[in-house]
Amino acid sequence: MAGKYQVYLEYKDSKSKWLDSIPKHWGRLPLKYLVAIRITDGPHETPEFVDEGVPFLSAEAVKKKSLDFTKKRGNITKELHEIYSKKCLPQFEDVFMVKSGNTTGALAIVETKQEFNIWSPLALIRANQLKILPRFLFYSMQADFFQKSVQLSWSQGTQPNIGMGVIENLHIATAPLNELERIIAFLDHETAKIDTLIEKQQKLIKLLKEKRQAVISHAVTKGLTPHVPMKDSGVEWLGEVPEHWEVKRLKNVSEIVDCRNKTPEYFEDGEYFVIRTTNVKQQKLNFNDARYTNEANFKIWTQRGIPPVGSILFTREAPAGEICLVSDNLKFCMGQRMMNFICHEHEYSKYLFDFLLSDCLDRYIESVSHGSTVSHLRVGQVENIPVIVPPKNEVIQIHEYLKLIKEKYIKLTNIAESAIKLMQERRTALISAAVTGKIDVRNWKAPKQKQTTREDTP
Prior knowledge:
This protein is an alpha+beta fold. It is built from eleven helices and 28 strands. Among the domains are: 27-174, Alpha-Beta Complex (Adenine-n6-DNA-methyltransferase TaqI, Chain A, domain 2), CATH 3.90.220.20; 224-389, Alpha-Beta Complex (Adenine-n6-DNA-methyltransferase TaqI, Chain A, domain 2). The protein is 34% helix and 20% strand. The strands form eleven sheets. It has a four-stranded antiparallel beta sheet, covered by helices on one side. Strands 19-27-24-25 form a four-stranded antiparallel beta sheet. The protein has a three-stranded mixed beta sheet with strand order 8-5-11.
């Protein structure tokens, strides 16, 4: 990093376990000496929400280093907002840090002057602008050294958690205010360029996903042979299907096993994975925030049968319609709102999986929700999902074709995701170097914008 940029002439030991050397004229201080008010959080009670009122945000609203008000928990009354504001009243350029949950350490800076309030998972950090500038504080907390200090300082129970007393004692480097202004200008410009490149790759991934689903949807509803005679499926949103295909209900082609109406008790030393809806994402099982139970509970929760390898796991709530295949060598039981589909004919399993991957499931959910947002499906609605049954030889052909298609799109998506990861790493490295003085940007100037001339105009 320093090879491309200038460095300071003299450095000193920062005498910190998080920071190594910093420029000789810089300092370092814990956050508690750099804030205008003591670091605080929102209420620890669950408020009553109203249809219209003051937006109330929690950890899920912290997205891409900013606040996403579409992810608010709800609205609270003006009266309740005034009560909560006695402890915590967000302001423009406040910095928020998630202090509990899977996203502990995630950051956002307030870029609006609209009125809102926050819940307890968010810590509010307000810069004392006589000592430090808000955006420099924000960048410093994104730096690698600070995020590592957060990770090594949190308590680990059922989920990560870091107290405000710990946060306020985490250190960052400090410099004269005029120098901080130059660092902020440099980082605003350089990170904006990186963010633009990341956004382009994210749009590419979204486009690849849409194209992949379109190919899958066409294959499982129209087949691979063009110009075959078609017939009305009898299902409005499904339209026409090949004349020699059958249209059935899910309950006619598979055994549908519903979970028990509650989730088993969790044990820290349990050996049986409890699959919850949060563990089924993007057609895969993930073990984020994994919970386990003991053998006694496992036997109770598998009385309806242990989901066999190759069968389909399905979420009917939070959200509805996520799927994945049961893998080998996995000891597990289903938690609440999970279902298992076991096809009557083994050859049909992979085709059914592809059918549920298509837009057919989304269209069915939309049809039973009558245009409203649906967060769950009833068991009867799941049993009556219309599915298409091609002849066995076509089922195999379609699966083999889609297997190649999915491999192609996975490869392209992986390339785009790798590019994003590299750019995110460069972004963090650049921020870390600038806010710790590894590079000297005091004389940096933003490149002049190219002037559009008559010759440039098409």
